[in-house]
Amino acid sequence: MDFEKKKAIYLQIADYVCEQILLQNWLEGKKIPSVRELAVDIQVNPNTVMRAYAYLEEKNIIETQRGIGYFVANLALKHAVNIVKHEFIFQDLPQMFKSMKLLGIEIDQIVEHYEMRKK
Amino acid sequence: MDFEKKKAIYLQIADYVCEQILLQNWLEGKKIPSVRELAVDIQVNPNTVMRAYAYLEEKNIIETQRGIGYFVANLALKHAVNIVKHEFIFQDLPQMFKSMKLLGIEIDQIVEHYEMRKK
Amino acid sequence: MDFEKKKAIYLQIADYVCEQILLQNWLEGKKIPSVRELAVDIQVNPNTVMRAYAYLEEKNIIETQRGIGYFVANLALKHAVNIVKHEFIFQDLPQMFKSMKLLGIEIDQIVEHYEMRKK
Amino acid sequence: MDFEKKKAIYLQIADYVCEQILLQNWLEGKKIPSVRELAVDIQVNPNTVMRAYAYLEEKNIIETQRGIGYFVANLALKHAVNIVKHEFIFQDLPQMFKSMKLLGIEIDQIVEHYEMRKK
DNA sequence: GTGGTCTAGACCACG
DNA sequence: GTGGTCTAGACCACC
């Protein structure tokens, strides 16, 4: 896993976990990698993984069972969708529309670009 | 002018200046507000404005003339477009497409949303 | 470390760092002194060191790693050489040749002076 | 006349005057352009020219005759040579030698470069 | 008046 | 501990 410089690493880890859940690679109720395990895996300070997990726990996306590990929470999928959707609607989309206006780009070009990508 | 918490103020000021140039409210070769003037205007420490200006000068979007002030650089429009376009293509757009995939949103919905906004 | 009055301190600090890298006292990938550390060391405000480091990062000579510190960048040596060489060819050398012409100094005298210095 | 951004304009004007004297284009005792005249000529604020002249007067390179104008001083040539020579020996040369050391450039290359230039 | 540098000190987020 | 941002205020050189 390689990290962007602009975003905090713990947030990028959280994004990664979220993604696995949304793609249903990790299912509700199932155990996820332990802090240490993941830390070794992605070459990061365990504290940083811990922080990502704490962040996700606060958002009700994972939960901890003392002495056992972290698990995908009940309704994790729903919560994760909500969070991503919120970001999408109130940040990503307006940001994109603004840039489009400044650059004089029309929506058709975006659609075109999108179709190209799918191939 | 009110600032978001997430992004550094000096970068938001830089964005603002860039925007004025892209919208051609401020034309190439013309003087822009002095550091102190803008600082008072937007209720910010002059150092912060200075930092924004220094940043934009580095990007060849504005120029300084000793003891006189800052001016919109030659080709500022071109440079600004390049920067915004680069961000758009390599950050905003991929980010949006990724979110769309995770959320199962189709491009039609984006277009619809876009048309709504225009009204 | 003592500073000339004519040149900004932060630029002199940048020069110093560059020098260490060019002399290979500081190697690519290795950590350099932290902002605070160096600030104490050379009796300067941390902000000033920060400014020097930010300047060098812009030039791709050093890199920051969140919460850890600054490191000599990949290819730092190459970039530093390029910058110094550019200055040398387009500023120092023409300036010297011009002065030589005005003063009626011949190149032999320079060589002589150079040999003297080496002893 | 076009100015470098790095050096104060009034100093560049002073350099220009010095150069004319060293090249003996302007001879001792002869009148030099008036402040206004030169200001118009090189598209600069008269205050800036004034400052350059004041600077040169202080260095005994030009002198003012009230109501008449500025003249190349007695011994101007000698004074100018001294100033340029001092700068050359204590600034330009050491600076060049230092860069040469950092870049691993040998004196032969400089001589070669110099000969090339002459052609 | 303009830009530009520096200091001092506070505060935050990150690892 | 690390970098990074911001404020406040002083001081300088330049036009």
Fold and architecture overview:
- Four copies of one chain form a homotetramer.
- By secondary structure, chain A is mainly alpha-helical.
- Chain A has five helices and two strands, in the order αααββαα.
- The first copy, chain A, has helices spanning 9-22, 35-42, 46-58, 76-103, 107-118, and strands spanning 62-65, 69-72.
- The first copy, chain A, has a two-stranded antiparallel sheet.
- In chain A, a hairpin with a 3-residue loop joins β1 (62-65) and β2.
- In chain A, α1 crosses α3 and α2 crosses α3.
- The two termini of chain A are 26 Å apart.
- The interface between A and B is medium-sized, with 25 and 25 residues.
- Chain B binds a DNA duplex (15 and 15 nucleotides) through residues 8-10, 34-36, 44-48, 50-51, 53-54, 64-70.
Uncertain stretches of chain A: none
> How many beta-strand runs of chain A?
2
Mean pLDDT of chain A: 92
Q: Quaternary status of these chains? A: homotetramer
Q: Beta-strand level of the residues of chain A, as a percent range?
A: 5-15%
Greatest interface and its participating residue counts: A-B, 25 and 25 residues
H/E series of chain A: HHHEEHH
What is the CA-based Rg of chain A, rounded? 17 Å
The outline of chain A comes out as: elongated
Helix percent of chain A reads 55-70%
Q: What are its keywords?
A:
homotetramer; 119 residues; 2 strands; DNA-binding; mainly alpha; 63% helix
